[in-house]
Amino acid sequence: MTRAPGLTSGRNLSYLAFAAVVVVYLLILQAGGLLIGKAAGEDSMDSTRGVVFTLLIPIGLALVFTYGVVAALGWNRQVLTDDRPVSRWVWAVPAILGGAIVLGIDYSALGDKGWGYTLALLIATQFVGWGEEGMFRGIGVTVLRKHGMTEGRVALWSSLIFGVVHLSNIVGHGASAVPQAIIVGLAGYFFYLTRRVSGSNAVNSVLHGLFDFALLSGTLGSTAYLGTFVPILAYPVLAILLLARRHRIEPATPTLA
């Protein structure tokens, strides 16, 4: 198998070393979040201060760690760009996600919270998007490719890993973290395709953050917001679309005359 030119640059990372990197990342998020929140006397995201100390700071530290690892490995190009294109129709994936985000944001609840709260939540969720996409679609995908996996296996394993690590949310959410991990694994595949069709890790990172922003905004109001269900419904819509067109995801291989 001939490797893409970008995969030959930078250091190599074993599966065990990648697992260690992920564990440290999760410790910063989970343990760091609990410790920082406790030290600040905050345990929820009901206030701007709560968002800053329970979300923004620990997630920001995890983000710095992620891109510190990328820099140390010399993987800036491999993580930030993608040279494995897919068919152009796959742009439907980020388009559907984007539409779901616009419809899913509870603008009224955010208005009641104020601009300071909204900005803090937006920054925190962007940190989530760039951090998780950098770790799992960036470092994770590069690790799998460097070990010679086919792109189908890269898609499968990177999505499974993404889902499994979200079982760490059991610490704060209990058994509800299990179905969440399954759904997140599916979302990982959508973000993986977004990375490939855009040729960059930026579009999936921004969308990931905005998707979480939309979902969290739906929990802020005193009454249920029906728009919250739109991002959730995007999952089965995308799953059906991709299943129906699964043989047309990869670009057609030109035939020799």
Notes on the protein architecture:
This protein has 257 residues and is an all-alpha fold. The protein has one domain (11-248). It contains eleven helices and no strands. The protein has helices spanning 15-40, 48-73, 76-80, 92-104, 107-113, 115-146, 151-165, 170-173, 177-198, 202-217, 229-244. The longest helix has 32 residues, at 115-146.
Number of helices: 11
Oligomerization category of the chains in this entry: single chain
- Count the domains: 1
| Rg, Cα atoms, Å | 19 Å
What's the helix-strand series? HHHHHHHHHHH
Question: Globular, elongated, flat, extended or rod-shaped: what is the shape?
Answer: globular
Q: Which descriptors apply to this entry?
A:
257 residues; mainly alpha; 11 helices
Q: What does the secondary structure layout of this molecule look like, with pairings?
A:
Elements: H1 15-40, H2 48-73, H3 76-80, H4 92-104, H5 107-113, H6 115-146, H7 151-165, H8 170-173, H9 177-198, H10 202-217, H11 229-244
Helix pairs in contact: 1-2, 2-6, 4-10, 4-11, 6-7, 6-10, 7-9, 9-10
Concise structural overview:
By secondary structure, the chain is mainly α. Helices cover about 70% and strands about 0% of the residues. The model has no long low-confidence stretch (mean pLDDT about 90).
